[in-house]
Amino acid sequence: MRPKSYSTEGIVLARKKYSEADRIISILTRTYGKMSYIAKGVRYPKSRKRGSLEVFSYIKFQAVNIKSIPLITETQMIDSFQEMRKDLRKVSVGYFFTEVIGRITRENETNEELFNILLNTLRKLKYTISLKTLRNDFTYEVLTNLGFWPKGKILQNHDQKLEEVLERNLSTIRIGKKLVS
C-alpha cells in the first residue's frame, strides 16, 4: 500500500489527453511498478512540469493519492535522453521499448529488474549504432525476466514470440523493423 503522499522515480511510458489542460501519464516506477497519474495543467505552454513528462523521460517525482488516480505534484528531470530524440530511428526504437513495457506489465506490479532493463536499454540507445541488436537484446531480456523464455536458450524470432506473449500486434514492431533493418 502506498502512503498518501510519496516520492519515487520512474520512466514515462505514455501520455494521453485528459481534459483541456491535463494529461494522464503512464509511468514505470522503480518502487510501485507501472502506474497511471494525473498531471494537472501540463498542456499549458508555461507549465513547469511539461518538459519532464515527455515519453522516455527518467524523472523523480512526488505524487499524492486522491480518490481515483494519483496526482503528480512535483517533477524533477533526471535524464531526458535528448541525444536519442535527435534521431528518428532511435526514437522509433524507444517507442517500441515503452510500448512493450506498457503492454506486458500490469498496474501496481513492482518489478525493479524490469525497470532497470528499460532504463539501461534507453541509456544504451543514446549511443548505440546497432539498433537491431539492441532491440533484440531488449526483447530477450524482457521475455526471460518475466519467465516467458528460458535463460540461455537462443530466441530466433523475437517479434513473433513477443506478439504471442502479448496476444496482440504491436504497432511499433512494423515501424521499428523497417527503420532498423
TrEMBL record:
Gene3D superfamilies: Nucleic acid-binding proteins, Recombination protein O, C-terminal domain. The keyword DNA repair applies. Keywords: DNA damage, DNA recombination, DNA repair. One of its GO terms (biological process) is DNA recombination. Pfam families: RecO_C, RecO_N. Residues 5-81 form the DNA replication/recombination mediator RecO N-terminal domain. InterPro entries: ARFGAP/RecO, DNA_rep/recomb_RecO_N, NA-bd_OB-fold, RecO, RecO_C. It comes from the Bacteria. GO terms for cellular component: bacterial nucleoid. The keyword DNA repair applies. PANTHER family: DNA REPAIR PROTEIN RECO (PTHR33991). Belongs to the RecO family. Involved in DNA repair and RecF pathway recombination. This is DNA repair protein RecO.
